[in-house]
Amino acid sequence: MIEQGVKLFDSLIVAIGINPEKQYTFSLEERLSMLRESLKQFQNLSVTSFSNQYLIDYAQSVGATHMLRGIRSESVSGSKLPA
Predict the structure, then answer these.
(1) Would you say 81 and 74 are in contact if contact means Cβ atoms under 8 Å apart?
(2) Is 0.70 surpassed by the pTM of this model?
(3) Of 1, 3, 80, 82, which is closest to residue 41 (Cα–Cα)?
(4) Contact predicate 12/43, CB 8 Å
């Protein structure tokens, strides 16, 4: 998805949303570092994070005109997406 996004847009921001109610395997700094290292070949991409706001509010605050989001699976609960 990211590889396609950097081709579609002049600049792309990969933003990690922080949810204080979740426990993560890796710290925020570790996740940012891993993403930056794995995506360093893309010149028009930045990696950042945000907290205490909705994604749409963050997007507006950075002047985003479009939003790319991955689809998450509900496999843990056994739910399936409608056909």
Answers:
(1) yes
(2) yes
(3) 3
(4) no
The answer to whether the beta carbons of residues 5 and 68 sit under 8 Å apart is yes
pLDDT digits (tens, 9 = 90+) for 18-69: 988 888 999 999 999 999 999 999 999 999 999 989 999 999 999 999 999 8
In this structure, are residues 63 and 10 in contact, taking their beta carbons and an 8 Å threshold? no
Q: Which residues contact 48 (CB under 8 A, 6 or more apart)?
A: 13, 14, 15, 16, 32
Classify strands 12-18 and 45-51 as parallel, antiparallel or unpaired.
parallel
pLDDT at 59: 94
